[in-house]
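Section 3.1: Structural characterization of target chains.
Under the original work plan, the team committed to producing a structural model for every single-chain target entering the pipeline before any wet-lab resources were allocated. The record below documents one such target. The sequence was received from the expression subgroup and is listed exactly as submitted; it comprises 326 residues.
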Amino acid sequence: MTTSTTVSDKTLHEALRATLDATDLDVLGKKYEGKVRDNYSTSDGRRYIVVTDRISAFDRVLGTLPFKGQVLNRIAHWWFERTREVAPNHLLSVPDPNVMVVRECTPLPVEMVVRAYLTGVTSTSIWTHYKNGGREFCGHPLPEGLRQNQRLPQPILTPSTKAPKGGHDVSASREEILKMGHISAADFDRAAEIAVALFAFGQKLCAERGLILVDTKYEFGKTADGQIVVIDEIHTPDSSRYWYADSYQERFDKGEQPASFDKEYLRRWLAAQGFVGDGPIPAIPDDVRVEAARRYIEIYGAVTGEAFEPNTEAPLERIRRNLGLG
């Protein structure tokens, strides 16, 4: 199920010069800057999350893509609303195309990554691990004879440490994560339970739309009253890998890469330039940035069944107005 986009080449190219790269809204509260999101914590238990147009891959910030923040914010909002009966989340309101207001939570020091296929291009991906002879990943045994992009016997939970900004996340088993002493077994197991349920829900909904939810990561936080909830984002093109279902088997049989529309396109382009996370970041040409943006927009339509209508106003001025900051 694909919905055509109304965003023209002209609009995308014009937006290259007006992306939301950074914010300075300290009047909202204490600022924490992530790779993609600028967070402002208030004194009354809320947090403003401004989703910028920054693009990250290989744990590095690479630049910006037009309308990326709007796409991420809208698709996360869409999934948060549809998964409330599966798992509690932190969303309160969406006052601007790039902004969410959420409950303040204490983040758990682990990401829950769920994988259903043997894929990936990074040095730490499950496919690279398997290709190099590894037959166990995060405590899960992997059978012999699997090929790149092949479906795993069943989805597996592969937790990851959360590295400080600029660092690299490390995949580890439950036992290894618990041994680090940063999270209790009860909190880990509750987050893992939610992650598995959300992934199953996401796979089912995506299958109804002709999509494969290949893998995804979930982040969790604990509210002031001790409840574990989903935070940050959910099933966005930044946190998830999506393939088209109708062409998957034919491409797999031919040894071709699946048709995808997530940031894997940009990862592959960078890898072709010899960049997989270390060293100077190659300059990304405008046509590559536009194509990457188009894929983000395409996934919004494919998942939600709605056409993406971008807001083309100057983002910082619009955000200030919508948040009542003048």
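The chain is about 30% helix and 25% strand.
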